[in-house]
Amino acid sequence: MPDPVRVVVADDHPVILFGAEHALLKFPGIQVVARARQSTELIKVLQTVPCDVLVTDLAMPGGQYGDGLPLIGYLRRNFPELPIVVLTMLENAALLKRLSELGVTSVVNKSDDLSHIGLAVQHVARNLGYMSPSVKASLDTLRMNAGGKSDEVILSRRELEVVRLFVSGMTIKEISEQLSRSIKTISTQKNTAMRKLGLDRDSELFQYAQSNGLLNLSSNSAGDQGEPH
Known about the structure:
Blueprint: E1 5-10, H1 14-25, E2 30-36, H2 39-48, E3 53-57, H3 68-78, E4 84-88, H4 93-101, E5 106-109, H5 115-125, E6 130-131, H6 133-145, H7 157-167, H8 172-179, H9 183-197, H10 202-211
Parallel strand pairs: 1-2, 1-3, 3-4, 4-5, 5-6
Helix pairs in contact: 7-9, 8-9
């Protein structure tokens, strides 16, 4: 009988952590060997507990190694052989592309049945990719909308600047005052950025910014290039 696949599960929500572990227990060839609630715990676990696959939430604030894409990047650099299954509520094109570039081949949306976590673990343990149904649907929609093109979503410097300030807690009016642009211009740049990223709600924009490390940028990082307003 083959050895079980040893899995570490990381999520900052106890309900999701319990649900994921419970779902994995239904797969006889999978064994949950440890859990973590944020990146500090996770890295400590990975340094001390033998593990074959990591299942981790994407948005998991509070740890010293961050979360979102910066954490995934850290994991890929320091545990390059460890297959990762990412759990997320986000499905936007830019995020999925960045995860793929970082070597993540398996993404499970939390809105899908949690049994897909076990299926994803089985796949990545055999060096195969796996996308849960709603993630797959998003990718299919993206491909249709792109007409077969796979151009990277690129925000202009001004759009990125507006997004960064907005997710930092500033209102459209405050941003317009700080950047000396009209409220209408700021609102248009924010809406254009959201449309490019495939986001519909402000809450999704906050999640995207957190996942992409935009919340950690210094206040002058996007506006120091001397472009006239």
